[in-house]
Structures are given as C-alpha cells and as structure tokens.
Design a protein that fits this description.
One of its GO terms (cellular component) is membrane. This is Cytochrome C oxidase subunit II. The strands form 2 sheets. Strands 1, 2, 3, 5 and 8 form a 5-stranded mixed β-sheet that branches. A 5-stranded mixed β-sheet has the order 4-10-9-6-7, with no helix packed on it. The chain is of the alpha+beta class. The termini are far apart. It has 2 domains: about 35 residues; about 120 residues, Immunoglobulin-like. The chain is elongated and about 80 Å long. The protein has 1 helix and 10 strands; from the N terminus they run H-E-E-E-E-E-E-E-E-E-E. About 20% of the residues are buried. Bound molecules: dinuclear copper ion.
Length: about 160
C-alpha cells in the first residue's frame, strides 16, 4: 500500500514538472523581443504535396463574399487545376507551387505573373471583373515540354 501511494505521488510530481516545463517554454515563446511567428505559408515540402492540405487537392475555395483562394500546382508540363475557375468581380489570392522544377505562372494578357519555385509558395492576388477566358503560360524554361505547358483561367459570371 505504501509503495502504491508513493508511485501515485511520483506520478503526480512528474505531471506537475511536465506542465511547469511546458508553461516555461510557452511563456518564453511569447516573451518580449523579436519573434518570427508566421513563415510557414511561404514554404512547402515539394516532395510531399500529396500530403499537404493546401496542395493535395488543387482547387479554388471561397473564403468570403467575393473572396477566393486558389491552390495551384505547376509541374512538367501543366498546371492544376485546369481550368482555374473563379467568379467575376472578385478578389482571388493564388497560391502557386511546383511539384518538380522552376516554372512560371503568367496569366496571358494581364499583369498577373510570378515565378514558381519548388519548396516555395508564390502568392499573388488578382481582381477579376468581366467574365472571360485567359491562358496561363509558363515563362521559365522547364524542360522539353516547356513551350506546350499551359493552363486556363476562366472568369465566370
Ligand atoms: Cu513550366 Cu516552362
């Protein structure tokens, strides 16, 4: 009986110590000074896009009234999703990453343009007005199929 009671005491003390340690670490992280708190949006494991919640299913998501987020994957030699379908008169933030090598992402005939680097997430925000169909071109040489690498952006009513 005595041993059992001691075990319980030690168990309780261990828990207290663990909680105290967690408390110290947590408190330390929010203390004064300079702290980078959010840079994970900027990177991604290009070899594990299938397990990444943003890019496992390339898609367009509505996040507010007239606000959309698009998750786009570039690879040799296409873009996904294709077409990217977004409503007219909306604001769309495109998060674009690459599955393999460096690509470009340019919405032809517009100023929407970014380089797409494996391991990084390029974010560009565009505003749409009239319904229209645009081509998306890759403007970084990425291999034998570079010149046929294209996507579509459909602005729909
Ligand atoms: Cu992809 Cu050039």
């Amino acid at each position: 009986m005595h041993i059992h009671a001691y075990e319980k005491l030690w168990l309780a003390l261990s828990i207290v110590l663990i909680l105290a340690l967690i408390g110290t670490v947590t408190y330390g992280a929010v203390g004064p000074g300079v702290a980078m708190v959010a840079d994970t949006q900027q990177t991604v494991d290009s070899g594990a896009l299938d397990e990444d919640e943003r890019f496992s299913e390339p898609r367009v998501e509505q996040v507010g009234e007239n606000e959309y987020e698009a998750y786009v994957v570039a690879y040799q030699f296409a873009f996904e999703p294709s077409p990217i379908v977004v409503p007219a008169n909306s604001t769309v933030t495109l998060h674009v990453t690459s599955r393999d090598v460096i690509h470009g992402f340019e919405v032809a005939g517009t100023n929407a343009n970014t380089m797409v680097v494996p391991g990084e997430v390029s974010e560009i925000t565009v505003e749409t007005d009239e319904p229209a169909e645009y081509g998306i071109v890759c403007n970084e040489y990425c291999g034998a199929g570079h010149h046929v690498m294209e996507g579509k952006l459909h602005v729909v009513s």
